[in-house]
Write a structure and sequence with these properties.
This protein is of the alpha/beta class. The chain has eleven helices and eleven strands. The chain is globular and about 55 Å long. The two termini are 37 Å apart.
Length: 311
């Protein structure tokens, strides 16, 4: 789908529910809220699905767009949701229009605005809003900045390119308060987060001559630190700080005993080749999956698969 086709689709209907993914980050939330604002400006009735896992630090940015209980929707637009396995808790339904930048998007819908070359859904949403409304409001610009900055690690990750910075420069020209956003979302963390980071750094594991670095995060570590879901944002980036590591793995134990895996790769190693073995996906340099095993067993399984991939 191109942007014109997506806009034509949006203009045909009304009553939109905008879907964010489970364990939502700034990209899915910022993009969804900005799109919701633009839909309302264009005369549509639209709200965000009440994702129960929205971190506290994003609540102030998106709470006014969350759907009331009595809202009856006709169409669902997903933002940054790559598969049905990433549907948020409590959602039962299907997607009518998908906005995404994950190349392996597997949602069962014919209507996909898919742009893998962009760093984030924020970039895609910006272009869609411009096509729909011819401009973005100051509030939308701030939300889109949050989306793009989050998915690029505040412009440090390898997915940052000239398109990213060009889009952000346009948003900054509107006078958004990026300083406060950067401080709140990327510079300051809680005491519990600092304690958890200490546990993670002190227990990092190295394999294959330090090529692989693994961070195991158990429920016990989280509980002992007093960390909440808010403190787990961007936790996968910690293992990437290990010098000389080209494969960085974060394995986080879930409440149901399964392991949530986040993989970051460098040096031309494809993350998807590894995560797809376990039914996951993502980008070439950043992918994820969930393994039905505890962290120790999941680690062994991942190392075994990586050995096969590297061969």
């Amino acid at each position: 789908m191109d942007y014109s086709a997506a806009v034509d689709y949006i203009r045909q209907y009304d009553g939109y529910l905008i879907l964010t993914h489970s364990n939502p980050d700034g990209d899915t939330l910022g993009s969804a809220a900005a799109l919701c604002s633009a839909l309302i400006r264009s005369g549509k009735n639209a709200f965000l699905f009440r994702n129960p896992e929205i971190p506290d630090k994003y609540q102030g940015y998106v709470s006014s767009y969350l759907s009331p209980e009595e809202f009856e929707y006709n169409k669902v637009i997903s933002v940054d949701v790559a598969s049905e396995s990433l549907f948020p808790k409590g959602f039962r339904g299907s997607v009518d229009l998908a906005l995404d930048h994950h190349p392996g998007n597997s949602l069962r819908t014919e209507n996909k605005l898919l742009r893998p070359r962009y760093s984030s859904c924020g970039e895609i949403t910006y272009r869609l809003i411009m096509k729909l409304c011819n401009d973005v409001t100051d509030e939308e610009a701030l939300l889109l900045y949050i989306a793009i900055a989050t998915d690029t690690g505040c412009f440090q990750y390898s997915n940052t390119n000239y398109n990213t910075l060009e889009t952000v420069s346009r948003l900054l020209k509107q006078g958004i308060d990026s300083k406060t956003v950067n401080t709140r979302l990327f510079r300051k963390v809680s005491k519990a987060r600092l304690q958890l980071e200490g546990k993670i750094y002190s227990s990092l594991r190295y394999y294959r001559d330090d090529l692989i670095c693994v961070a195991l995060i158990t429920r016990q570590m989280i509980e002992e630190s007093g960390a909440t879901i808010d403190d787990l944002d961007d936790i996968a980036s910690l293992a990437c700080r290990a010098e000389n590591s080209n494969i960085c793995i974060t394995i986080r134990e879930q409440e149901d005993g399964r392991s949530k895996v986040s993989l970051r790769t460098f040096g031309g190693i494809n993350s998807i080749d590894i995560c797809s073995v376990f039914g996951g996906g993502g980008h070439e340099s950043a992918a994820g999956c969930t393994i039905a095993a505890n962290p120790e067993a999941a680690c062994e399984m991942l190392i075994s698969v990586i050995d096969e991939v590297l061969r």
